[in-house]
Design a protein that fits this description.
The complex is a heterodimer of chains A (294) and B (410). Chain A is mainly α. Chain A is built from 15 helices and 2 strands. Chain B is mainly β and 410 residues long. Helices cover 3% and strands 41% of the residues of chain B. The N and C termini of chain B lie close together (7 Å). The chains are: A mainly alpha (294), B mainly beta (410). Chains A and B meet through helix 1, helix 2 and strand 1 of A and strand 7, helix 1 and helix 2 of B.
Chain lengths: 294, 410
């Protein structure tokens, strides 16, 4: 009868419930989905706190530096037009990741990038600015992404949410039949990677984001993101052990659960279980991804 | 007084559907049930008969009708369930009774004629259809003490109707935020005050109660009183929000108190004290350590109703394993009883049950927490307005228990 009260499994269970509610007779139950979203938010907060605690304890700065360098070494081998973008994105991911991992180190740079840091700090828990002496991502991508990410007023809507980051509910407005999702408070590195992917697919970062969840941040309905993520996955051998990882993570995008009728999701329901599995998450190593719930 | 010596006087399992609502009328002579298939069954209490002492006061089927049918909203591509969410009686007028029944979207007024001696059957007829006023799912209806108006509540709005007018209603509460992303709570139940026609209460998914006065403003978004118990931070869990959501609210017959039910407790509130409940009753606290499993199997979303007895001295609510609980407010005694064919032969007195913690000291006939059947849930219960007669809906079975020894309220 007892089940492990584990943030990760609660997140996947909750998302499954939301997905199933789409096909329930009588329409989406607003009350039940609202309650599920609270569980999702609570689990996400716990998960993020646990992850950060783990990261800061591990003192990974040098480790990440090493990985970064390795990736840069790979570049000359696969240099073509297509991969150039991915390489930049991977570097960004690397640097973004490393930046968030090295709280202390990055805080040193607060003075160098006060604007970005200030904005990030207000919206993103534990977000840190990029290290200047590490490679791109373009600061402009980062800033615009983060700025769009979190109108502070939204954070105020959840008084019980004590941390600086907030997530938003994806809600179907039955009056106007509009599904709206606003996400804010992604972790820094997600933000950057998203921005670059957005750039690739010519999306404006200001656009209301589709939901991201789980260990990946791509938008299921953007083929270019899909491809980009796949390419990144190839390089990050140490990180993603599941070959279906990027597929399932794309598919688990919540907007498709809610409103867009993404039929692919229905055929891959079983994969949802894998998404927050310990295996995937634990294997991230230096590439920790936080779960940004809908 | 507890424990009551309740005996089963009627057990029905219409070849039907899961019962979704149970309601006595104002005199207790009639009992209506609604089910998932949109059907309403009305029972009538047999008048006392000297020739047949054992059938005195028993309930028999009076009338059955199809209240709601499944509908399809083509514009929104949504199927509208025919399940009857609530039934509320109006007082008898002349030779007929009236009741309101509602599904998720549409409320209907039905005329229930009084059976005359020459009639073979009772034909219930629809008198009004109150439609197209609710975007969200209707969870409550409540008739005003003026017997001219009633209200219907959905997740975000409450509308006031006149019983004779179907083409318009007045919105009196609207908690829909400007941005749906800012949604933090929904309305879960609403009820008019039994005597003051200007007062009503509604409960929210955040565990708050709001008493509103319709004389203060046309739109009662601002409450007159807000009843809220501060959360205990040490009890915080992943499921704190879910278990604090109020599933039912009922005024006492006196109008002085409110009874609310959330997942684990029943609370009595004094209308004069907003800061915390007057009394809190643990219905099944042994479930507190099992919330994760109950979340997984969706049981944590079950909406239990609650009821007062006629003298407001005892409250009743359902639980799992076909158990239901009664709490005596004066003596502070409580009892757990079971509604099942196996455990209640007609006219035998119901035996109190006990749930023991897993691994705890177990007496004979005790049930261990781990053996509870969570598919057998008693969500809907009703208490006769003046006598010790209760109606218990156990999935698709209806049980009516009478306390023959203590038929009068204490």
């Amino acid at each position: 009868m007892e089940c492990a009260v584990d943030a990760q499994s609660l997140i996947s269970i909750s998302l499954m419930k939301i997905h199933n509610s789409r096909t329930q007779r009588g329409g989406i139950k607003l009350h039940k989905n609202l309650l599920v979203s609270y569980v999702l938010r609570n689990a996400r907060q716990v998960y993020i706190k646990e992850k950060y605690a783990e990261i800061y304890r591990m003192q990974q700065y040098e480790e990440v530096m090493t990985v970064c360098n390795e990736i840069q070494e790979l570049n000359p081998l696969e240099l073509d037009a297509e991969d150039a973008d991915d390489e930049e994105q991977a570097r960004a991911a690397c640097c973004g990741e490393e930046a968030s991992l090295c709280g202390t180190a990055c805080h040193r740079d607060a003075a160098q990038q006060p604007a970005a840091h200030g904005r990030a700090a207000s919206a993103l828990h534990g977000c840190s600015p990029l290290e200047d002496d590490h490679k791109e991502p373009e600061p402009s991508y980062y800033r615009s992404c983060c700025m769009e990410a979190s109108p502070v007023s939204h954070c105020d809507q959840f008084p019980a949410n004590s941390s600086a980051h907030c997530n938003k509910t994806t809600v179907l407005d039955l009056d106007t039949h509009v599904v709206t999702t606003v996400e804010n408070g992604y972790l820094h590195q997600d933000c950057c990677c998203d921005a670059l992917q957005c750039g690739q697919s010519a999306q404006s970062p200001a656009k209301k984001r589709k939901v991201e969840f789980g260990c990946c941040i791509s938008d299921a309905e953007e083929v270019s993101d899909f491809t980009a993520a796949r390419k990144r996955a190839k390089r990050e051998d140490c990180s993603y052990s599941s070959p279906d990882y990027t597929d399932t993570s794309n598919i688990s995008n919540l907007i498709s659960i809610f409103g867009s009728g993404f039929s692919g999701l229905l055929s891959r329901q079983a994969d949802l279980d894998q998404i927050c599995s310990k295996q995937v998450l634990a294997s991230l190593g230096a590439w920790t991804r936080a779960i940004v719930a809908f | 007084c507890l424990p009551p010596s309740l005996s089963l006087c009627l057990s029905l399992s219409p070849p039907a559907d899961i019962i979704s609502t149970v309601e006595f009328n104002h005199t207790g002579e009639l009992l209506a049930t609604g089910d998932k298939g949109g059907r309403v069954v009305i029972f009538q209490r047999e008048p006392e008969s000297k020739t047949e002492p054992f059938s005195q006061g028993e309930y028999n089927v009076y009338s059955t009708f199809q209240s709601h049918e499944p509908e399809f909203d083509y514009l929104k591509s949504l199927e509208i369930e025919e399940k009857i969410n609530k039934i509320r009686w109006l007082p008898q007028q002349n030779a007929a009774h009236f009741l309101l029944s509602t599904n998720d979207k549409t409320i209907k007024l039905w005329k229930v004629p009084v059976l005359k001696p020459m009639d073979l059957m009772v034909e219930v007829s629809p008198r009004r259809v109150f439609a197209n006023a609710h975007t969200y799912h209707v969870n409550s209806i409540s008739v005003n003490s003026d017997y001219e108006t009633y209200m219907s509540a959905d997740d975000l709005r409450i509308n006031l109707w006149h019983l004779d007018i179907t083409d318009r209603s007045f919105n009196i509460v609207d908690i829909k935020p400007a941005n749906m992303e800012d949604l933090t709570e929904v309305i879960t139940a609403a009820e008019f005050h039994p005597h003051h026609c200007n007062l009503f209460v509604y409960s929210s998914s955040k565990g708050t109660l709001r008493l509103c006065d319709m004389r203060e403003a046309a739109l009662c978004d601002k409450h007159s009183k807000l009843f809220e118990e501060p959360e205990d931070p040490s009890a915080r869990s992943f499921f704190s929000e879910i278990i604090s959501s109020v599933s039912d609210v009922k005024f006492s017959h006196s109008g002085r108190y409110l009874l609310t039910r959330d997942y684990l407790t029943a609370k009595v509130w004094d209308l004069n004290m907003e800061s915390k409940p007057l009394e809190t009753y643990q219905v099944h606290d042994y479930l507190r350590s099992k919330l994760c499993s109950l979340y997984e199997n969706d049981c944590i979303f079950d909406k239990f109703e609650c009821a007062w007895n006629g003298s407001d001295s005892v409250i009743m609510t359902g639980a799992y394993n076909n158990f239901f609980r009664m709490f005596d407010r004066n003596t502070k005694r409580d009892v757990t009883l079971e509604a099942s064919r196996e455990s209640s032969k007609p006219r035998a007195v119901l035996k109190p049950r006990r749930v023991c913690a897993a691994g705890g000291k177990r007496r004979k006939d005790d049930i261990s927490v781990d053996s509870l059947d969570f598919t057998k849930k008693i969500l809907h219960t009703a208490w006769h307005p003046s006598e010790n007669i209760i109606a218990i809906a156990a999935t698709n079975n209806l049980y009516i228990f009478q306390d023959k020894l203590n038929s009068e309220m204490h």
